[in-house]
Amino acid sequence: MLDDLDRRLLRQLQADPTLSMAELADRARTTAARAARRVERMEADGVIVGQEAVLDWPALGFAVHVSLRITVDKAAPRALDELMAAARKVPEVAEMQTFLGRVDLRLSVIARDMEHYQETYRERILALPHIADIEALLTISTVKDEGGLPI
């Protein structure tokens, strides 16, 4: 169970994961030693699972972001597993999510431009196994992208 100090530490880590332990402790109003113990415990408990660098895809030359909603052909018993294994090998697939409902799988695909996307779609995506239906949603803009939880 998280207490108030844990929540303060998590809020600060979500806002800036690059803080030193002394800075984190200061912002959470505790000592560095206590903050370090709490962070270690939350890591051991799986509350904190890691830190990551968030890259700006357009700044790196990936201007196209498409969300593909896929319905799987369920004739094969392991169709979804086989589809996901094959999709993991496509470098342009940045994210995968599974769902309950009409859509089984969502792939987040990035590309440098529309030509690169069309090539990826035709040569890699359409070659994936067990796709019954696919819908493409081209991202126009990201209105909100909050990675943190309201702790």
Q: What's the structural blueprint in terms of helices and strands?
A:
Blueprint: H1 4-15, H2 21-27, H3 32-44, E1 64-72, H4 79-88, E2 93-98, E3 105-111, H5 114-125, E4 131-138
Antiparallel strand pairs: 1-3, 1-4, 2-3
For the sheet with most strands, the description reads:
4 strands, antiparallel
Strand content: 15-25%
Total beta-strand segments: 4
The Rg value, from CA coordinates, equals 20 Å
Instruction: Give the structural class.
Output: alpha+beta
What does this structure look like?
With 151 residues, the chain is an alpha+beta fold. 36% of the residues lie in helices and 20% in strands. The chain contains 5 helices and 4 strands, in the order αααβαββαβ. It has a 4-stranded antiparallel β-sheet with strand order 2-3-1-4.
Characterize this entry briefly.
The protein is α+β, with helices and mostly antiparallel strands and 151 residues long. It has helices at residues 4-15, 21-27, 32-44, 79-88, 114-125, and strands at residues 64-72, 93-98, 105-111, 131-138.
